[in-house]
Specification:
Elements lengths: L3 H10 L5 E2 L2 H6 L13 E3 L4 H14 L3 E4 L16 E4 L6 E5 L4 E4 L5 H9 L3 E2 L12 H7 L6 H4 L6 E7 L5 E5 L11 H5 L8 E8 L1 E2 L3 E9 L2 H13 L6 E5 L1 H11 L8 E9 L1 H17 L4 E4 L3 H12 L1 H4 L6 E8 L5 H15 L2 E7 L4 E8 L4 H20 L18 H4 L2 H14 L26
Helix pairs in contact: 1-3, 8-10, 8-13, 13-14
Length: 470
């Protein structure tokens, strides 16, 4: 709990409208997409970096946790206040400060919604590629904290590839500026890339300078249906082997396709799996790549290959793709959602292995995701009220991770570690690497106030312990 002194100081620091201790407000900031709520002691709404400094400085002195929060769309509990403390919501720091069309740089505050930045950039003929599924809700600050990806990562990369510089409030309450607006810069350690993906455990981003690209001249969207998931996976491998890099290359299994059609009703087939493929770039190159992709899909046993010829058709396909996760709850009330990644050449082995795990354990495991970069979202469906089924789902998660690592993959591609994956950290990382990470955390955040309880499992990393003083 916050001490009376800490509460008094917070009230001095912030206007009454920028601070709340009321339970009805605290509940709204107690959870993310994991739906594992834990109440904070307070929630604050800073409007400027200096207010963030004052909050963090007070936390450093008083020893209470501070948890940065964007829109709460994360899948691993990154913004859940597991140790109580103060949630710092950046929803009021939501300005697009500048879009510099001459230098292809955007300067934004952390509360800017990803979609809004994309629209503002597009109005100037520019392009901000990172596109997490939650892009119409998620914020740039949250994307930076989790190093968010999305369907376009296959060609354009992830959030860290577009972060040039950051303004960060560090655990002592000071503001530091790292990185640069320039396309190049190698002065000292790359602290910018350390902050990106650190899940708010090393500091709070209060401003970001982001790289933009020119808008592609042309684009095509292809929808290919296959009788089996392994056929669709084989087509993915063939496309990449042909040295074609689509802007998106999404795979969806039969379970996901059936559920999303029942949910969205846009006319998807009742059986089979599909690939949603987009190519963009120069007009001639797009035509050539689209034709080659169609040919590969036919050769890998596609039942149909169609092109979305108008904006509504493209919009409907992406509406279906982005609705898959929510639609799966039509099958079971609970799910374990993992975002594993394997080398693209191993996708067929991965999906075959997951199908074997599902059959052996009597579970329904739905697979979809960014096949073009080997990033598959594995959804293990279960009912937590059925104890044996819930236990089997947990065991299946471990088996999926073991399979992924055996194929040279990683257990998290874009969701981070947070609280849901921390117990699996040592499956992938050696003790030496974990110790190095631990030392970095303890050096930058010696009191363990910055988003404690994340990434490191209990007993491995810095653990915030509540005392009588806090």
């Amino acid at each position: 709990m916050l001490t009376d002194r800490a509460k008094k100081e917070l009230k001095k620091t912030l206007a009454p409208t920028n601070l709340s201790f009321e339970k009805e407000d605290l509940v709204c900031y107690a959870y993310d997409a994991t739906n594992s709520p834990m109440l904070p002691d307070a929630v604050v709404f800073p409007a400027a970096a200096q207010e963030v400094c004052a909050i963090v400085r007070l936390a450093f002195v008083e020893g209470f946790p501070v948890i940065p929060r964007g829109a709460g769309t994360g899948f691993t509990g990154g913004s859940v206040p597991v140790k109580g403390g103060v949630v710092v919501s950046f929803e009021r720091m939501n300005r697009i400060i500048e879009i510099d069309a001459d230098n292809l740089v955007a300067t934004v505050e952390p509360g800017v919604v990803t979609w809004e930045l994309q629209q503002e950039a597009a109005a100037k003929g520019l392009f901000y590629p990172p596109d997490p599924t939650s892009l119409k809700f998620s914020t740039i600050g949250g994307n930076i904290a989790e190093n968010a990806g999305g369907p376009r990562a296959v060609k354009y990369g992830v959030t860290r590839d577009y972060v040039l510089g950051l303004e960060v409030v560090v655990p002592t309450g000071e503001i530091v500026t790292i990185g640069a607006r320039t396309a190049k810069g190698v002065v000292g350690y790359d602290i910018t890339r350390l902050i990106v993906g650190s899940e708010g455990t090393l500091g709070m981003v209060t401003k970001a300078q982001l790289r933009l690209l020119p808008l592609p001249q042309a684009g095509r969207t292809i929808f290919a249906v296959f009788p089996a998931l392994k056929d669709a996976a084989a087509a993915v491998s063939r496309i990449i082997k042909a040295r074609i890099i689509p802007s998106t290359l999404e795979i969806v299994d039969s379970t996901s396709m059936r559920c999303v059609e029942e949910y969205a009703g846009i006319g998807l087939p009742k059986t089979g799996s599909f690939l949603l493929i987009e190519v963009d770039g120069g007009i001639e190159g797009v035509e050539r790549e689209a034709e080659e992709i169609r040919k590969i899909c036919v050769e890998t046993n596609a039942a149909s290959v169609e092109e979305a010829t108008d904006k509504k058709a493209v919009k409907d396909l992406w509406k279906a793709r982005r609705a898959i996760s929510a639609s799966l709850f039509r099958i079971k009330p609970n799910k374990i959602n993992e975002d594993i990644v394997v080398p693209r050449s191993s996708i067929v082995e991965l999906v075959s292995g997951i199908e074997e795990i599902a059959a052996r354990r009597g579970l329904l495991i739905a697979c979809f995701g960014h096949a073009g970069d080997g990033n598959i979202h594995v959804n293990i469906m279960y009912d937590k009220k059925i104890v044996k089924e819930a236990q089997s789902a947990q065991s299946a998660t471990t088996e999926v991770f073991e399979l992924t690592l055996s194929l040279g993959g990683t257990i998290s591609g874009e969701h981070g570690i947070g609280i849901t994956k921390s117990k699996y950290l040592d499956m992938e990382l050696t003790p030496a690497v974990i110790e190095m990470m631990k030392k970095i955390k303890m050096t930058l955040d010696p009191k363990g106030i910055m988003n404690p309880g994340k990434i490191f499992p209990e007993g491995v990393g810095p653990v915030f312990k509540k005392t009588a003083a806090n």
